[in-house]
């Protein structure tokens, strides 16, 4: 987190910097979209290959502002310094400022000292249609909350993984009613890890098994649930999705953490372990997907085509 007495110029006023995040193909605030172009579009920005840095702060009146800079390296160095507990004066040059957007797209827990409490700025009379950026609601469930949930699982992988007993995974070829398929397994109900949303749990699926001859089990029936997610993820290998929908980052040992998103779903996985799936149509549910015979190959293929931090 930035020191709150740092200030940069924005719209002829001082901006007291509170924090900053990257907006690049390999790392962007997932609340903004399933992929990098969608995240840029949410802020009215073109998807530049090099990306942007987002600097969140308050002006001298206490109003919330998000300053967009194309000096990505400067913002990356500042974030790395703050993560190490070091001070860093983040001051993007005036020529590097692309836009100053009212509001914050993310929740910020701190405020600048010596100025009024954080609030949205007054509407710009020249741009009355421009609404302030706001973080997603914490008491609702939708695409933004689903992606935030996947973020939290990636950050707390060990806490979520220890809740899952591999013996509970389905190994006889039957599938639960959510269309999970051979790789899916049911985890214990009642998650021990503190979730980012109150009702989330690694839940046991209660639907009847999908058996041969049933409508859901027929080849012509549309795929649902985890089966649909795995099928769409496999399709990414053949037809690359929009930039940033599949991202790979460091994990312990030689493994990688994979993050994939698609219409209505998010998946978090370790290349040497299982995966977790979240769905828009399953509010607060975290669905574990066992290794099985197919998941390792899928994760390896996704990792090869994923965007990685430079």
Automatic annotation (TrEMBL):
Residues 176-188 have a biased composition (Gly residues). Residues 113-143, 168-225 are annotated as: Disordered. This is Membrane protein. It comes from the Bacteria.
